[in-house]
Specification:
The structure is a single chain. The chain is mainly beta and about 230 residues long. Helix content is about 5%, strand content about 55%. The chain has a 19-stranded antiparallel beta sheet that branches. It is elongated. The N and C termini lie far apart (about 105 Å).
């Protein structure tokens, strides 16, 4: 009995001196303190982080089954805030994307990076997990390649596609994720070559076709079928 008591005292002293024990619970059965979880039947960490009476606080690192010691995602929880900062990484530790989440929903501005580069590839905005506002996509040289507007997760308004020198090549108009309105195509010099209208994802009305800046052809849509 005495040896058991001394052993418990020794373990308690070691824990207090060398660090907090992992995977502990508070008096109400809630996770509290430092936690680690491993994949079944392996020594590979699945996640590690700290709980404060059942609530995540600070950094939580997440790993893939064969990820080793390099986390593929880091979530930073604030004690008095529901918003969580999120970063996703390659196996070599390069940031792939980052933004914020509330619960399981993305919120605010998210940023994505080009492969093997720290240059921004795209930015987009979320409200309650749905795209809302401008989505901007960039070439590696920093030039804008596409700009499109979203409302409640659907494309609404103008979408423009650019060349790597900044020339607008295509302009579309959307309503509830469908082409609806004026559409224009330009050559690499920015000269208009085609223009027409869409209605619910289908060409509608007169479409104009240009050569060397002059009208060369017109077509009426939808195409009328000949009767016999």
């Amino acid at each position: 009995m005495r040896s058991t008591f001394l052993c418990c005292v020794f373990v308690s002293i070691v824990t207090s001196v060398f660090g907090q024990e992992y995977n502990a619970y508070d008096a109400n059965g809630k996770r509290h303190g430092k936690w680690q979880k491993k994949y079944d039947n392996t020594d590979q960490l699945r996640y590690e982080g700290t709980f404060d009476h059942g609530k995540e606080i600070g950094e939580f690192k997440f790993y893939k089954p064969m990820g080793g010691t390099s986390p593929t995602a880091i979530k930073t929880f604030l004690k008095d805030n529901d918003s969580v900062k999120v970063r996703y990484f390659t196996q070599r530790g390069k940031v792939i994307s980052q933004g914020a989440m509330i619960g399981k929903n993305r919120e605010g501005i998210w940023t994505y990076y080009h492969n093997k580069s720290d240059k921004i590839m795209m930015t987009e905005q979320y409200v309650s997990g749905k795209l809302y506002g401008e989505q901007l996509t960039y070439f590696e040289n920093g030039q804008l390649t596409e700009k499109v507007s979203y409302v409640n997760g659907k494309r609404n308004g103008k979408r423009t596609i650019y060349s790597d020198t900044g020339v607008a090549l295509k302009e579309f108009t959307y309503e509830n994720d469908k082409l609806n309105g004026i559409t224009k195509y330009y050559d690499t010099n920015g000269t208009l070559i085609i223009e027409g209208n869409y209605k619910k994802d289908r060409k509608d009305g007169i479409w104009n076709y240009y050569k060397n800046g002059k009208l060369s052809e017109q077509k009426l849509f939808p195409v009328q079928k000949r009767g016999y």
